[in-house]
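Proteins fold reproducibly. Next comes a concrete instance:

***
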Amino acid sequence: MPQSKEGILHNSVLFADMTPSEIERLCTLLCAFERHYQRGRHLISAGDPISGFGLLLAGAIQVFMDDVDGNHIVMADVSPGSLFAEAMACAGITESPITAVATANTAVLWFHCAPLRDGAFFTDPLCARFGVNLLRAVSERSLRFNDRIQVLSKKSIREKLITFFSQQVQQQKSLQITLNMDRSTMADYLGVERTALSRELSRMQRDGILSFHKNRFLLHHARES
């Protein structure tokens, strides 16, 4: 059952250990506003000015960049409760290098970043706690990008898959994992062709490394062949 807006905010790293009244006050200070998008709508387009960042309340978002040939390089798939564009907003980047598209009907809570660039903002104890939480969120995003770099640095599709699945096993704390992406999105994330990805998954299943049905995978072992 989908969480309520209040539940999403309460469980977000951004508002960790804060009361509803504290969350409401911060939302007011950061001029937060909710906006809804239909599937396929762009929330951010490459080249757009960045004045704030978003917290996904419902739906799904894909964040990607295009290479010189116009191919998508998937940077992240955003799920409810997660932030996006926070690092760019805090860094004061004037033109977005990324595109963010709703992959389902989506609700987003947007926050303006201008107050965060005012040193006086963090003299308030509540705002200082918020700053620590935001730093944690940005740091966690950096670690996830490091995971992505590890995947992309592998030469073969099998090596990419083994690295990717190992990361997911660690994150989900189970050898049985569920991915929040279809084959096309997965291929974009790994930087490979979809048909080549499907062939390699079939080979890995044949070799007894894993078994799968749609987006559910059970890892047995990871041997090279």
